[in-house]
Design goal:
Elements (H helix, E strand, L loop, with lengths): L15 H10 L8 H14 L4 E5 L2 H11 L7 E5 L8 H5 L3 E5 L10 H14 L5 E5 L8 H11 L3 E4 L7 E2 L2 E2 L6 E5 L12 E5 L2 H11 L22 H11 L2 H18 L6 E3 L7 E2 L6 E4 L1 H4 L3 H10 L5 E2 L15 E2 L3 H8 E3 L8 H12 L12
Parallel strand pairs: 2-3, 2-4, 3-14, 4-5, 5-8
Antiparallel strand pairs: 1-9, 6-7, 6-11, 8-9, 10-12, 12-15, 13-15
Helix pairs in contact: 1-8, 2-8, 3-7, 5-6
């Protein structure tokens, strides 16, 4: 029996063990150590653009710290892209603030500049602007940064980037995760590179990096004893996990290239299929790592839904998954304000994430194509290709 093809699995490069073994040799398996410092330096060099990086136990932890450092709390609002994973929105609730969700636009599936402008104008008229705007680079696709930065600057509202899915993606040649006042990355097991679990806070302000490290290590003041004048958190990445990250950084560009090859595979597979659209960059300003290649299925043209296709693939041992269900549709956020139309709802209805792991090869592509061909005979694939 063939093993199941999963949506996105960890992909080790081999040198991860070198850094882990060094930590064991040095007996430095405590939370901090040389691998933590080295991983942060590796990320700063890779991102460029004056970046300062503090690695954390998760991307969610990094976003929580960002909101804390902006002094956001009860009575405040935070605008957030609606079409995203819950981790983009949950930290808003952690600090007691109120989320306001913003619709997507059709080109990048990310937060719509026009809907954001409408929402900010509404709050400006009411005399209470949000304390921050969280934008997400969905599935690795950069958001429309020029327009979004312009809107946020117009109203003087800080922008936070959720670049959890976008390490290696660029907008006009600039790395995602380096545009906002702060940004977050994720190294969860399904991401471009992984530390098993982990994340990072990115900023251009070295004082914010220093403050995030202070808060993320239980806010211990400088004293011989344990002195605390602030509430802190246990949010720093371990030295062992950071060692995995150091090894993964050595193959990051290869992983991005492999994900982009997957997207090309699907683009070619569906090129002659009326009613199936493969998500791709709108123009040359956008460079996506294509963390997850996604498609839209128009049942009026195909005669089947994205759920029909998902179940057919699942029956063949191949995992796919619907797009993120928008946050304004989630029961836990029922009753929150929403600005926009129905773009994110339509994307959720018709969208499907395809298997996209960087360790997929020709054999896996063949199995995927054969499974799809049982439902879509016109796909551009044959065993000789």
């Amino acid at each position: 029996m063939n093993p199941k093809i999963l949506l996105s699995t960890p992909h080790m490069g081999g040198n991860e063990l070198k850094y882990i073994h060094q930590a064991f040799t040095d007996n430095w398996v405590a939370p901090l150590g040389a691998n933590v410092n080295g991983f942060e330096s590796d990320l700063e060099e890779y991102l460029g653009n004056g970046s300062h990086v503090a690695v954390t136990s998760a991307g969610t932890a990094a976003l929580h710290l960002a909101l804390v450092m902006l002094d956001i709390g009860p009575g405040d609002e935070v605008f957030c892209q609606s079409m995203t994973f819950a981790a983009s929105a949950n930290p808003i609730a952690y600090v007691g603030a109120t989320p306001v969700f913003i619709d997507s636009e059709k080109d990048t599936w990310n937060i719509c500049p026009e809907a954001l402008q409408e929402a900010l104008a509404d709050r400006a008229k009411k005399g209470k602007l949000p304390k921050a705007v969280i934008i997400v680079h969905l599935y690795g696709m950069p958001a429309k940064m020029d327009e979004l930065i312009s809107v946020c600057n117009e109203y003087g509202v800080p922008m936070l980037e959720d670049a959890a899915e976008a390490l290696g993606s660029t907008y006009k040649g600039v790395k995602c995760g380096t545009f906002g006042q702060m940004a977050i990355l994720s190294f969860n097991g399904n991401k471009i590179i992984t530390t098993s679990g982990g994340g990072a806070l990115v900023t251009k302000d070295p004082l914010l990096k220093k403050k995030s490290i202070f808060l993320g290590t239980q806010a211990r003041d400088a004293a011989a004893h344990y002195e605390h004048t602030h509430i802190g958190y246990n949010y720093r990445l371990s030295n062992i996990s950071a060692g995995i990250g150091r090894g993964q950084m050595e193959v990051l560009d290869e992983r991005v290239a492999a994900r982009r090859r997957n997207q090309s595979f699907y683009a070619n597979l569906f090129k002659d299929v009326d009613g199936i659209e493969v998500f791709t960059e709108p123009d040359e300003d956008f460079f996506s790592n294509h963390w997850l290649t996604s498609i839209l299925v128009d049942p009026a043209k195909t005669g089947f839904t994205r759920e029909d296709l998902r179940l057919r693939m699942l029956n063949k041992g191949i995992e796919s998954r619907p797009l993120w269900k928008p946050m304004h549709m989630q029961p836990v956020f029922r009753g929150t304000d929403f600005f926009g139309s129905s773009v994110s709802e339509e994307l959720f209805r018709d969208g499907l994430c395809m298997p996209s792991g960087s360790n997929l090869g020709a054999a896996e592509h063949e199995r995927i194509a054969e499974a799809i061909q049982t439902m879509v005979p016109e796909v551009a694939w044959s065993p000789s290709v």
